Amino acid sequence: MSKPSGNQKRTAIIYFGETRQDYLRLVEEKGHRELLAYIQPLLTAQLLEDQHHDGCSDQSHYTVHSQRNRQLQGLLGSKETIAICRVRCQTCGAVFTVLPSFILRYRRQDADCVGKILEMNLGMGLTLRETASIYSWMGTGRSWQPSWVWSLVQWLGNLLPVYLLLMRMGLKPPEHLLSDEKFAVLNGKKVYLFLASEQELIWYGKWMGSSDEDCFTETIEAFCVGMDEAGRASGHIADEDEYVPISVTTDGWIASQNAWESRVPDITLMECKFHGHKRVFSSLDDYEKAHPELSYQQLSQVKAHLNSILAAPSLAAFSQRIRRNIARYHDQPILLKRLNILKEKRFRFNNHLKFEDAPTYSAPLDRSIRFLDEKLHSFGQFRAEHAIDPMLNAWAIVNNLRSFLLGAKKAGQSLAQFFGAIVNDIPWMEVLNLCTVGLLHDLLPSSS
Ligand SMILES: [Zn+2]
């Protein structure tokens, strides 16, 4: 049986150095001796045997087959002409295109330009129209439509799933997850966006038609299967193993908790204390309305009693405070109802004490989600189902990979770096480009 051998399969992406000059110097040199010496080990590391012709016995020797010119547009100025090499395997004769990492397959703009456009649109909250306008101001003769930016977002979202990207950047599958869901609008109807993250670092996003247990189960299943495959492919999970997160913190939605438990039976469920506080607050509010006769001091006392529960330093203290309050308020149905819920959920609110690095609050995810909210707002509503997941994936990629601005606490770093990815100061769009063909670590020359 013949194997697929499209251009996609026969393209290698190589990092040549910090500047474009590092690439041009090698590619423009006569005889290409230095070029071949540089790229051969990197080609061997990234080109798989099945990308060669059947029966190829040695994938470590290449010659330059041909060279052609390609037009490339940067963010500023006019187009440049860049030479691109094709190399041939000396054993089987298969021919591969060698792209420097600042050139993306099938895109006329260079990585810097594409990265900045995507950052403007997905990371800074600009609309499609605003992004397109700014691009057109950067050079003469550019007339872009907002729909062009939209297709760029879709292109990014379809390149590779964010969880695979993170693993190819060297990050381990997270042990402690946050999971949350968000509203969005599809053709006038409410839909839900499911998100799984490691604090602010987004690992997964998928839309759901409803927020019932079946939808959650299906979505969590898809997440875990994706994590299994990506984990095995990138060497983080052994072939016979599965991805098994230790804990998940949710906002308390029962359908989501049940679904997690059914897919990952041993998982420790935790509830976000922030959401717990909000519900206590809402019960206190109801209580206050039902008892206009209470003095300010009496009400303050009730509030202090109830608020002390979620602030308890241990499960024992938590349970004791509930018992005391149930005795105290046994004849107050509004408070009793809340106290019984807290009692029922006492483990979920205190499980974080068992793990050093499990989150008590889902607030970090909320922060990332705020950007998503702005994004959804500026995109307006979705019109096609198939566009939602790529948009979420594209947003997650930009959220994780773009650098924080100067002056921020994590200035100059991206979230992915903060969580341990080593990117050697390579711009994020080039990192992403390299990760489309393999593990980042294998694709960088050993000296750098
Ligand atoms: Zn070969």
Write the layout of secondary structure elements.
Blueprint: E1 11-14, H1 20-27, H2 33-46, E2 62-72, E3 80-89, E4 95-100, H3 111-123, H4 128-137, H5 146-159, H6 162-168, E5 176-186, E6 189-198, E7 201-208, H7 213-233, E8 247-250, H8 254-263, E9 268-271, H9 273-290, H10 296-310, H11 315-328, H12 333-344, H13 346-350, H14 363-379, H15 385-401, H16 415-418, H17 428-435, H18 440-443
Helix pairs in contact: 3-15, 3-17, 4-5, 5-15, 7-8, 9-10, 9-12, 10-11, 11-12
Question: Would you count the extended β strands for me?
Answer: 9
Counting helices, strands and paired strands, the structural category is alpha/beta
Query: Overall mean pLDDT score?
Result: 89
Q: What is the percentage of strand-forming residues? A: 15-25%
| Distinct small molecules bound, one entry per kind | zinc ion
Gyration radius, in Å: 27 Å
Q: In this structure, how is the largest beta sheet organized?
A: 5 strands, mixed
